[in-house]
Amino acid sequence: LQGIIQAYKSGITLQGNTTSLGRWDYSGSFFFSISAITTIGYGNLSPSTVVGRIFCIMFALFGIPLNLVLLNEIGHLMLLGVQHCARRLEEVFHWQNKASLLMKTGALVTGLLLFLLLPPLLFSDKEGWSYEEGFYYSFITLSTIGFGDYVIGMNPDRTYPSWYKNVISLWILFGMAWLALVIKFCINLLE
Fold this sequence. Notes:
By secondary structure, the protein is mostly helical. The chain is 70% helix and 3% strand. The protein contains 7 helices and 2 strands; from the N terminus they run H-E-E-H-H-H-H-H-H. It has helices at 2-9, 26-37, 50-93, 97-117, 119-127, 131-142, 164-190, and strands spanning 13-15, 18-20. The chain has a two-stranded antiparallel ribbon.
C-alpha cells in the first residue's frame, strides 16, 4: 500500500490497463511550471528529490520576476488596446468621456466572461465539477490564493485532452494580468 501511495505522489496513475505519467508529461510539467512561477502553488505536486528541489528554487528565483514582467506587459497591452478603442470611439462618434467609460465597462465585462464566467463551464465538462466549484477554482487560481482543494487534471477516473492543461496555463497567465488590472482599477477608485 505504501508503494502505491508513493507512486501516486510521484505522478503515476492507473488508467484502465495502462499506466499514465500525466502529472509529469509535457502538459503536466508546463502546468507545474506555471503554477510555480505565478506563485499559485496548489500543493498537489512538488519535487521529491534534492536535485529537483534545488532546481525548483533556481527556477523560481528567475521565473517569478520574469513572470511579473510578462504579466505587467500583458496587462499593459490589454490597457493599450482598451485606450486605443476608446480613442477610436471618440473620433468616430465624437464622444468625450463616454467612450472611455464604455471601453472600461466593455473590458471589464469581456474579462469577466473570458476569465471568470465561461471557464467554469469547461471545468464542469472536463472535471465534473459544478459551475460554482468551477467559478471558485477560477477565482482562487487567478488571485494566486491556490488552496489546492481543486486542481485541474488530477482525477484518475477521467481522461483529459492533450491541449487541456496548456490552454488552462495560458488562461492563468492572461487571467492574472486581467485581474491585476481590475485590482489596480479598484485601488485607484479607493484612493
